[in-house]
Amino acid sequence: QLVESGGGSVQAGGSLRLSCATSNVMVSDYCLGWIRQASGAERVGIVSIYTHSNITKYADSVKGRFTISQDRAKNTIFLQMNDLKPEDTAIYYCALEKEPGSWWDDDNYWGQGTQVTVS
After folding, report:
1. What is the per-residue pLDDT for 82?
2. CA pair distance 47, 104, nearest whole angstrom
3. Which long-range contacts (CB under 8 A, 24 or more apart) does 62-69 make?
4. Distances in whole angstroms, Cα of residue 38 to Cα of each of 1, 45, 99
5. pLDDT at 105
6. Taking Cα atoms as reference points, which of 20, 23, 14, 52 lies closest to residue 36?
């Protein structure tokens, strides 16, 4: 189970922090991360993290502005989004890989999503 929270509306240049609460995912080294889907567009993976090794990977579009982190004790990952731009407007989904190595191939379990709007 993946439950996102923290979306909202913000002006360009502002910040938001998303959270994704998971259920017993962090007992193994799974790949978790965030995918976003703008209206009328395909979903795009933007950042991932391995829950044990803490290895991260960022899409170029968010590198330097977004930071993924985790609190394994709380089974939660976070996405700190700074310097937000109108093009960051999308539904943001927390995603868990279905198979090892599948995350960036978009073969994932999703949460329900949270809307982020930047004006």
Report:
1. 98
2. 9
3. 62/88, 68/33, 68/34
4. 23, 12, 26
5. 87
6. 20
**Are 51 and 70 contacting, i.e. CB atoms less than 8 angstroms apart?**
yes
What is the arrangement of strands in the sheet containing 76-81, beginning at the earlier edge strand? Answer: 2-5, 16-22, 76-81, 66-71
**d(C-alpha 34, C-alpha 93), whole Å:** 6
Task: Provide the pLDDT for residue 111.
Answer: 93
For the chain, the 3-state helix, strand and coil shares in percent, each to the nearest 5, are 10, 50, 45
Give 12's contacts (C-beta < 8 A, 6+ positions apart). Answer: 84, 85, 86, 118, 119
Q: What is the mean pLDDT of each run of 10 residues along the chain (119 residues)?
A: 95 98 81 96 95 94 97 93 98 93 90 97
Please name the amino acid found at residue 44.
Answer: V
Amino acid at 16: L
